[in-house]
Amino acid sequence: MLVLDLALKSLRNRAFSTSLTVGSIGLSVALLVGVENVRVGMRDSFSNTISQTDLIVGAKGGTIQLLLYSVFGMGSPTNNLSWDTYREWAEHPAVEWTIPYGLGDSHRGFRVIGTNEDFYRHYRYRGGQEIALAEGRAGSEVFDVTLGADVASELGYGLGDEVAVTHGIGEVGFLNHDDMPFEVVGILEKTFTPVDRAVYVTLEGIEAIHFGWEDGAPPMPGEEHTHEEVLAMEEIEITQVTSFFVGTANRRDVLRLQREINDYEAEPMMAVIPGLALNEMWQGIGYAETGLRLVTIFVVLVGLLGMLVSLYTSLNERRREMAILRAVGAGPGRIVALLVLESLCLAAAGALAGLGLVYVLLSAGQPIVEAQVGLFIPIRPPGSVEWLFLGAVVTAGFLIGFVPALKAYRTALYDGLAVRV
Amino acid sequence: MSPAIDVQRLRFRYGRGPWVLDIPELTLERGARAFLFGPSGSGKTTLLGVLAGVLRPEEGEVKVLGRDLACLSGAQRDAFRAEHIGYVFQMFNLIPYLSVLDNIALPARMNAARRARLDGAGVKEAAAHLADQLHIRDLLKKPVTELSVGQQQRVAACRALIGGPELIVADEPTSSLDFDRREAFLELLFRECERAGATLVFVSHDRTLEDMFSRRISLPDINRGAL
Asked: How many CA atoms lie within 13 A of A108 on its CB side?
């Protein structure tokens, strides 16, 4: 206890260099823990994009590709599935609900997604949150359109505005379906998921704008359907979907259902488990993560080296102090303990300061990051990884302390009771 | 009772250098007030280091209070010093980050035997009592950096005396004081050593003080080594 008391008083006596050292270790630890938090936040928000969906089903192709176009609104779908096939699986006894998607069109760079009321009823994100409407109602008529929050705010659309849909995906479509304007009937609440950046229409609406486009080219003159003609139709037959989400009644059926879908012979199709596919995708991004982590670990090392330099250079001024301690009976062991404890205290204080700083920055920055980047970083108590980092920093502080301590030990033995040059 | 100091055929040198100390014999009875003098470089501080058990002699016997320090391990010598020896430096005696009180209390906190000899008084009370005796009671709460040199030396004397060590070793503690203060300081030191029954070894190159001591030892006369 005496040595600890001495160590603390000695550090307090050198308040300026102590606070600089604690500050630099604190900043580096804050960076380390902060990056970890952002990483976990990104990963969570990534995997929180959908929840409670057991399978995503689409035409046969790449797992990640299916995930990208049906969940993240990235890349292009390869093929569609027929409506009959979709219905067949939707009525499968193991299936509780489905959300059908018709993809492939866009509006001024935002994806247009054809779906039906099942989307509003069953879509879940971030631990089971439901899609909610900020304004208006969910689209249900052929030319109804519901906008994601970002689409509405970025394009400045309000209820009642007309929206033209572009065939194909891209900022500027060559072929506009502008003979078929849609009307905004609803705007969704912000979700901080790709839902915010999508335009939702009905599957019937998707069919309607493609009347006469069955071969992929604009209808021949004379074959066009006018807006009025479509509206006059009693029923628009839906012919295809791009993919669909599946929720099972019993999660034990998921694997069997997946296998059945993958083995379906009438049409080449595949089912992926979103969690597994997300993981697979995340692993691809993992290299960047590892790199980032390495950099922050080096930053912490630099912080600790700063402490080493500060302790080491103070030793010369402290030779007198060591001689006094020796004279009152402190053995070399106590001299070593004193310096190791000082280093340990600095590292521990730095680690705690860094942890505190992270939480201050997180709570201050969370709303800003959420608003600017759309990334929701949850504030949570330090997890095992954080404790591991902090433990490593404190342990490193302890070990580094031996460098000045052993130097002081040798100096103390050499000096004895007189400071010799 | 064994003498306070009994040195026989002591030889010491730093590393492989020349012999700094080569003392055939030096004894000092208990309770003596010894004045050890010699010019700079005659090995005074080195001899004190050996007597305090910080430096280990290469040859010979160094019996302090009956224990041969040459036979003890480093840790044993540290413990012996903590328990039995009070040390006063020439200057810069105090640890800058401790208060006056903490500086005085340090040996008692460092060593259980010194603590046990406080006659039941707490470390703080004992330190305050000694400070009283050396007329520095009102300095106890001050940071040591605000003390004058004379005040610092008295604090150092208090620290050497706390817990009643049998041997007080003082390495030119008065050389940075003016003459009047030297005498006053010595009077106080003598009085406290007497009260505690401690032996005092006082080193100086300044022989104006030697009349105040019961025993005078010329280091150049007994040391055949040195430079």
From this structure: 14
Answer whether B49 sits within 8 Å of A323, measured CB to CB: no
Sign of the CA dihedral running B43, B44, B48, B49: negative
- Residue A221, classified by CB atoms within 10 Å of its CB into exposed (0-12), middle (13-18) or buried (19+), is exposed
Are residues B30 and B200 in contact, defined by beta-carbon separation less than 8 angstroms? no
Structure tokens given for B89: 């430096």
Q: How far is B44 from chain A (nearest CA, A)?
A: 11
A55: Cβ contacts below 8 Å, ≥ 6 apart? A245, A246, A248, A254, A257, A258, A261, A271, A272, A273, A274
Provide ipTM, 2 decimals. Answer: 0.85
Other beta carbons within 10 Å of A309: 12
Does the predicted model carry a pTM greater than 0.80? no
Distance (Å, whole) CA B222 – CA B204 = 16
Q: Cβ of A345 under 8 Å from any chain B Cβ?
A: no
C-alpha span between A108 and A197 (Å, rounded) = 11
**Is A13 close to B52, i.e. CB distance below 8 A?**
no
List CB contacts (< 8 A) between B109 and chain A: 2
Per-position pLDDT tens, chain A of length 421: 788 888 888 888 888 888 998 999 999 999 888 888 888 877 777 777 888 899 999 999 888 889 889 988 888 887 899 999 999 999 999 999 999 999 988 888 889 999 999 999 999 988 788 999 998 998 888 889 999 998 999 889 999 888 887 666 655 445 556 667 889 999 999 888 889 989 999 998 888 877 766 666 666 665 566 666 777 776 788 889 999 999 998 989 999 999 999 999 889 999 999 988 888 888 877 788 888 888 888 888 888 888 888 888 888 888 888 888 888 888 888 888 999 999 999 999 999 999 999 999 988 988 887 777 667 777 888 888 889 889 998 999 999 999 988 888 887 777 766 666 5
Chain B's closest residue to A317, CA to CA, is B96
Q: Distance (Å) from the C-alpha of residue B174 to the closest C-alpha of chain A?
A: 16
- For residue B3, tell me if it sits in a domain: no
Which amino acid appears at position B143 of this protein? P
CA distance A64 to A62: 6
Domain count for chain B: 1
H or E stretch covering A95: strand A95-107
Q: What is the CATH number of the domain that holds B88?
A: 3.40.50.300
**Is B10 in contact with B21 (CB distance < 8 Å)?**
yes
Backbone angles phi, psi at B99, to 5 degrees: -70, 170
Interface with chain B: mutation pick from A10, A18, A320, A328, highest number of B CBs within 10 Å: A328
Phi, psi angles (nearest 5°) of residue B5: -135, 135
Question: Three-state SS string across A159-173, please?
Answer: CCCEECCEECCCCCC
**Residue B20 forms part of a structural domain:** no
Q: A418 with A323: CB under 8 angstroms?
A: yes
- Whether residue B65 is contained in a domain is answered as no
Distance between terminal CA atoms of chain A?
32
Contact B162, B127 (CB under 8 A): yes
| Closest Cα in chain A, distance from residue B29 (Å) | 23
Kindly list the domain boundaries of chain A, sorted by start residue.
2-46+285-415, 55-272
Q: Which domain holds residue B161?
A: 31-57+77-222
**Rounded Cα gap, residues A228 and A207, in angstroms:** 15
Q: Considering the domain boundaries, does residue B115 fall inside one?
A: yes
